[in-house]
Amino acid sequence: MRTWTELLQRIVQHGGLIGHDKGLSGCAAKVLCAAIGRRLQVIASWGDGWDHVSVTRVSDNRPPFWADMAWIKDLFFLPDEVAMQLHPASKNYVNNHPGCLHIWRPHDQDIPLPPTIMV
User: Fold this and answer.
1) Would residue 117 count as lying in a domain?
2) In 10 A of CB 104, how many CB atoms?
3) Model's pTM, two decimal places?
4) For residues 10 and 53, is the Cβ–Cβ distance under 8 A?
5) Where are the beta strands (DSSP E) in 1-119?
6) What pLDDT digit, counting tens, does each position of 31-63 carry?
7) Domain that residue 16 falls in
8) Which of 19, 73, 85, 99 is most exposed by smallest CB count within 10 Å?
9) Quick check: 25 and 45 in contact, CB under 8 A?
């Protein structure tokens, strides 16, 4: 995940920072997704061995679109970092907001990737 200083610079440059709050292991920001024209609320954390970004649309309770999530991934993570949206077993679901999606990246292991060519 990018450093907090770099994140702020990129958000201001590429999206427009609406407001933010930073703590020791995370931050919260409202950003304008400039390429798409939607306002997104983002909470990012980098503790307990994981980078984590949660994304909601400010306008309604609908989940962000794929383009929103891809834009946020590029904003928060380095180009060579693999991050994922994770679908755990149903018994492990956590749903604190019906329109929130998450991007995850573990600190201590690589995320396996599927084949690039499907047979």
Assistant:
1) no
2) 14
3) 0.81
4) no
5) 17-22, 26-33, 38-45, 50-57, 101-106
6) 777 666 778 888 888 888 999 999 998 888 899
7) 4-88+95-106
8) 19
9) yes
Integer Cα distance of 18 and 60 in angstroms: 17
26 lies in a domain? Answer: yes
Paired tokens of 110: 């690589």
**Amino acid sitting at position 110:** D
Find, among 65, 4, 57, 61, the residue nearest to 31 by Cα: 57
Q: What is the pLDDT of residues 62-76, one digit of tens each?
A: 999 998 899 899 988
- Measured at the CA of 72, the angle between CA 69 and CA 77, to 5 degrees, comes to 120
- In this prediction, residue 16 has a pLDDT band, given cuts at 50, 70 and 90, of low
pLDDT per position as a tens digit, 75-113: 889 999 999 998 889 999 888 888 999 999 999 999 999
